[in-house]
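Help! Submission page says 'invalid entity' but I think these are all valid:
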Amino acid sequence: MDDPVLLTGASGRVGQAILSHLADEFEWRLLDREPIPEDRRYGVPESASIVADVTDDEAVADAVGGCGAVIHLAGDPRPNAPWDSVLTNNIDGTQTVYQAAVDAGVEKVAYASSNHAVGAYEAEERTPEMYRTDDEFRLDGTELPRPSNLYGVSKATGETLGRYYHDEHDLSVVCVRIGNLTKGHPPREYERGQAMWLSHPDCAHLFDRCVKAEYDYEIVYGISDNDRKYYSIERAKEVLGYEPRDNSAEYTFEGELREDAEHPEE
Amino acid sequence: MDDPVLLTGASGRVGQAILSHLADEFEWRLLDREPIPEDRRYGVPESASIVADVTDDEAVADAVGGCGAVIHLAGDPRPNAPWDSVLTNNIDGTQTVYQAAVDAGVEKVAYASSNHAVGAYEAEERTPEMYRTDDEFRLDGTELPRPSNLYGVSKATGETLGRYYHDEHDLSVVCVRIGNLTKGHPPREYERGQAMWLSHPDCAHLFDRCVKAEYDYEIVYGISDNDRKYYSIERAKEVLGYEPRDNSAEYTFEGELREDAEHPEE
């Protein structure tokens, strides 16, 4: 990707996982609601950062002009966020970004969806068994959303918006249902979190592939190659060339790196 | 259903198809943005009609209190409606109705979704063949939405909201992807419209079943039993007991009732 890549929500958790590994990989434009401090830009110049709200049509149109791809992360990230906030920041904001991308002739949008878009598949009768290595239950991205909260509803809506902008406006869209992103070790003593763990290096690598690969419309799961997984990563491997390096099974349940682990803790 | 049934959007096209057949079937409460004239109430007393916007939390809470079921039709019905309107009237309005229903202990919500939630399945390579009797292509409600416009995105979002309110709050929800509703004959000289035709009697009967049947969460197609169909009505038959009486094949392509038709034109 020679054209600039716009990263919305650059200061957030996912944005930082991406930037800390890929600052030199693309010509970035960084967008956030607040000015992005130097230690969160990883060498990206201040002149390439934009302070704007994703619900601001004009500001987003300016930010996206000339870009080849957008990684859209901005939004209210709280699973318990109230409806009014996710309606505005997540649903309306995401429509603004897709529309601006189409208007500007952007080629691809990688959209940060969430495990909360399908959280209600974790029904009482399936848990905690589904979080365990020997359980065969898998979601693969072809299933209908089953959000566990209104935040999850907003994320599922962003996926549907992406489908529309792909079908009707030829935008390439990949929706990444992000698992449990942590730096270093997987969540401690938390089976569900270990099953959907996404390490920082795998997160950055996955979004790198979202910018570089060719696709039409995809929904993929963003997790490391965890033994415990109940999300399939086959589609991400096949279509995007995702090759995760991490696996929560390389850590003890308490979060200690096992002695025979292939990769050092980040 | 002994408790009152709230009908939102009572003055609209679908609301009128329902009321004109079922005015005596339930104790109705009618809600619309404008006062409902007497000739659109079909004998339902003016005292049972409420003038309010579905985005008004308090008014909707008042309207729904004590009801056993809601048929939620209100919203901007234009397939080419702009984003701001469907965001407010359809997405926000539908969340308001579901939330009020849950808060009031309502048992069931029947939600008017639309063929536009899946309109982009009608891709160039499948049409017009898929509109024809001998074509086997079927959508059955288990497929992911593929909206053909932002109105369709808003309708798909109402389905996802319903899934959430069912899973997390135990509300029974049925989403009816309504086809092409016309009074009397099917759309003239329009293959697509004849394939997804929904007659007034079948529309009323289907929503009657939505109020009376028992279900958890369902997505069904609302069309008559047309020979041309590319939407399956099996799920509606099985779960709701839907027994459509009409079929666009009983009319000529030009919309004339055939001599051997089983049912008289309404």
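Support: the input was valid. A stray whitespace character was the problem, and the output above is from the cleaned input. Chain B has one domain: 5-250.
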